[in-house]
Each structure stands twice: as C-alpha cells, then as structure tokens.
Amino acid sequence: MTSRDYANRNPQRNKKGKKKSGSGHGSRRFPFLILLITALGLAAFIYLLWSISGSPTEGETIDTVSSTKEVQAVVAKPDPDALPPAPQEKWTYLEELENKQVEVDLSAKRPVKPKRPYQIQCASFRKEEQADSMKATIAFQGLEAIVRKVQGTSGMWYKVVLGPYDSKRLAEKQRHILQRGGLNGCQIWLWEG
C-alpha cells in the first residue's frame, strides 16, 4: 500500500460551476412571497379596525331585534364618586381578648445558671519567647492578649489568650479582626480561671 501525502495535495476544483445570482425561479418567488404575506397582514389589520369600530361605547343605546320582540338595552355608566359599601366585621376576637386574663405560674421558675464568660485562645507554646512574639502580633491588630503559664501533663505551656468576653458574639467579632490580620488558628472557649 502506498502512502499518500494529503498535506500537499491540491484541492479539487468544483466542476459544476457557480450559479449566477438573479437567474432561476428563486429570485422571482421571494418578492412574491413577501408581497403576499404583507397583503394578508394588512387585510387582517383592516378587519381588526373594522370590528373594533362596530362595538358600542359606554352610554350608547344598542338596538337588537329578537324573533318575538324588540329589546332596547342601555349600557350604564358607573358613578366615579360612589363607594362600595363598607365590609361588615365578622371577627369577634377583639372583644374576647379585651376581657381575657392570663395567669402565669411564677413558682415553677427554673434557676438561672450564671453564664461563664468566653475567651479566645490563639496558640500555646513551650517557650515563653514564642508566646510573647504572638502577643506582640496581636497587639499590632489593636487587641490586648494575655500570656498564661499553665502546667500540663507533658510540662509547662504558655497560652496566648484574649478576653474575657461577656458574649460569644463579641468574641466572634474580635476573632474576625484577628483573621483579617492573618491569625487564623484562634478558637473561642469558655473562660478558664
């Protein structure tokens, strides 16, 4: 089998030749079709106008003839100043609620637990210098942090903590400030000690 080189092959010429524009039935039929569609649209528009002009307007008398007698109907014009009648109130709960008394049992009141404040813990380090460096980074964000020295099971730890906060919402607000400054590891906990 011989290999063929399709890249260098000359394209075959169209042997039929091009049609000349303007010859044939296509060019004559096209304007005739547009003319026919335009005439039908114009006739439909004229019929629509004729049917609208034959309808009665407000206040006119319409004479109609039936098989037995002649009936005259008048289309009445509404009075623009007349208001519809006021709706009747069908609800009675307003009178019932005026005389209703609510009883509340105060003896079954649950004791309210005192809320513990919240704290934000950003990191815990083995070395105090690292904790002080984190505290300085937080200070550049405009917040005040505390380095808390804690004895753990594996030795001494230095926790970097912010707070206390009365509400979790306030703690979340401060944590968002820290996140904008690039400190993403801060967690919100209940206040310790």
Automatic annotation (TrEMBL):
Biased segments, Polar residues type: 1-11
Q: Where is the composition biased (Basic residues)?
A: 12-25
Give the residue spans that cross the bilayer. Answer: 30-50
Q: Is Transmembrane helix set as a keyword in this record?
A: yes
- Pfam family for this entry, one: SPOR
Q: Please tell me whether the keyword Oxidoreductase is annotated for this protein.
A: no
Q: Which keywords accompany this UniProt record?
A: Membrane, Transmembrane, Transmembrane helix
Q: Which domain of life is it from?
A: Bacteria
Q: Which residues form the SPOR domain?
A: 112-192
Where are the stretches annotated Disordered? 1-25
Which PANTHER family does the record cross-reference, listed alphabetically?
Answer: CELL DIVISION PROTEIN DEDD-RELATED, CELL DIVISION PROTEIN FTSN
Its recorded name reads SPOR domain-containing protein
According to its UniProt entry, this protein's organism is Shewanella surugensis
